[in-house]
UniProtKB/TrEMBL annotation:
GO molecular function: ATP binding; ATP hydrolysis activity; transmembrane transporter activity
Keyword annotations from UniProtKB, A to Z: ATP-binding, Nucleotide-binding, Transport
Stretches the record annotates as Disordered: 1-34, 315-355
Keyword Disulfide bond: no
InterPro entries per UniProt: AAA+_ATPase (IPR003593), ABC_transporter-like_ATP-bd (IPR003439), ABC_transporter-like_CS (IPR017871), ABC_transpr_LolD-like (IPR015854), MacB-like_ATP-bd (IPR017911), P-loop_NTPase (IPR027417)
Nucleotide-binding recorded as keyword: yes
GO cellular component terms attached to this protein's record: plasma membrane
Residues covered by the ABC transporter domain: 37-278
Name recorded for this polypeptide: ABC transporter ATP-binding protein
């Protein structure tokens, strides 16, 4: 089921903290820290040889401190563009973006360098891009500590801690070529954590790995998130990643379209169950994207009819009146020809009962 995520927490049924809405008010009234990542109406236009490509088309995204989030989307949907902006490697064309209190559009060169050195850690898809091939795993981490100007005397202990945290404690003396792809990525996570970043960003970190290695790497992200409290954002085209994170945001055509939130619920017998619920993202001006399969199934095109009831909104296809055959078929099925009051209920709903 897909519903707009504007008011309840799916795991408790209580008023939620609405992760995608961008609101930072706490329903309990307690003061709440600002989101670690916040994007509003983010636009990135690339111009090359006279052709403009809108990679991001007004993207909204809010990630609270300490969240572990995956951003998934098809090839070309804008995932890497978003990540290079959040890591300070690229600057958006318009909109607002901030990470750990740094305004990514207003940052000067010096702040940007400091931001990349101390605030964010980055993991690339290509295992070979993350590690220096002629240094051992431990030396790669040491190099990152030197760049971060970590005190020399603390480095040995920190390297050991990071290798243990990433479950590669016994592999510190190996060169990257002597490690499996999954082990290399786990060392890469350790390198990215060396500067003690508030935010860890990963671009397709499992893209070159088989299933078993992917699982291990994703478990490492979870361990880092839970044990260090680091905010983690992973972008991937692999929708299977959503099973490893509590929150998955789907990007379509440069904008966030849906979110899957996973939670643990306890039944009457005291047994715990993982529950995943899908929500449509409603932006600040009321726009949402209907899932493509809903649109196809109901053959919705160009315009739809909206209806407001006490507690939900309906979206119904508009049928052409001109075709008598279609009219007959619709009447036979008990559906109003123009998608009026008898029209079937469709995807978009803000009904409390639907959540
Ligand atoms: N430097 C660039 N110059 C021109 N167009 C670009 C540039 N970078 C990205 N694009 C375009 O922007 C769009 C989004 O690209 P992006 O790499 O962000 O998508 P993606 O979702 O990460 O795709 P993939 O999963 O294939 O890596 C694409 O149409 C791409 O061709």
């Amino acid at each position: 089921m897909t519903s707009a995520n504007s008011s309840t927490n799916p795991s408790t049924g209580a008023p939620s903290r609405t992760p995608s809405s961008g609101l930072s008010s706490d329903p309990t009234g307690a003061a709440k820290s600002p989101p670690t990542i916040e994007c509003r109406e983010l636009v990135r236009i690339f111009s090359s040889t006279g052709v403009e490509v809108q990679a991001l088309q007004g993207l909204d995204l809010t990630v609270e401190r300490g969240e572990l989030t995956a951003v998934v989307g098809a090839s070309g949907s804008g995932k890497s563009t978003l990540l290079t902006i959040l890591s300070g490697l690229d600057v958006p064309t318009a909109g607002r973006a901030s990470v750990a209190g740094h305004d990514l559009l207003a940052m000067g060169r010096r702040e940007r360098t400091g931001f990349r050195r101390h605030t964010v850690g980055f993991i690339w898809q290509q295992t070979s891009r993350n590690l220096l091939p002629y240094l051992t795993a431990a030396e790669n981490i040491a190099m990152a500590l030197i760049v971060a100007r970590s005190p020399k005397r603390a480095r040995g202990a920190r390297i050991g801690e990071l290798l243990d945290l990433l479950n590669v404690g016994d592999l510190g003396d190996r060169l990257p070529a002597e490690l499996s792809g999954g082990q290399q990525q786990r060392v890469a996570v350790a390198v990215a954590l060396a500067n003690g970043p508030e935010v860890l960003l990963a671009d397709e970190p499992t893209g070159e790995l088989d299933e078993a290695n992917s699982e291990m790497v994703l478990d490492s992200f979870r361990a880092v998130n839970e044990q260090l409290g680091t905010t983690v954002l992973i972008v991937t085209h692999d929708s299977g990643v959503s099973e490893h994170v509590r929150r998955t945001v789907q990007i379509r055509d440069g904008r966030t379209s849906t979110e899957v939130l996973r939670s643990t619920r306890t039944d009457h017998a005291g047994l715990e169950h993982e529950v995943a619920e899908e929500f449509a993202v409603l932006d600040r001006v009321g726009r949402l994207q209907l899932p493509q399969d809903y649109i196809s199934q109901l053959d919705m095109r160009d315009r739809v009819r909206l209806g407001l009831t006490d507690d939900h909104v309906t979206v119904a296809p508009v049928r052409e009146r001109s075709s008598p055959a279609a009219q007959d078929a619709l009447e036979a099925s008990g559906t109003d020809a123009d998608g009026g009051p008898d029209a079937p209920r469709t995807a978009a709903s803000t009904s409390e009962g639907d959540r």
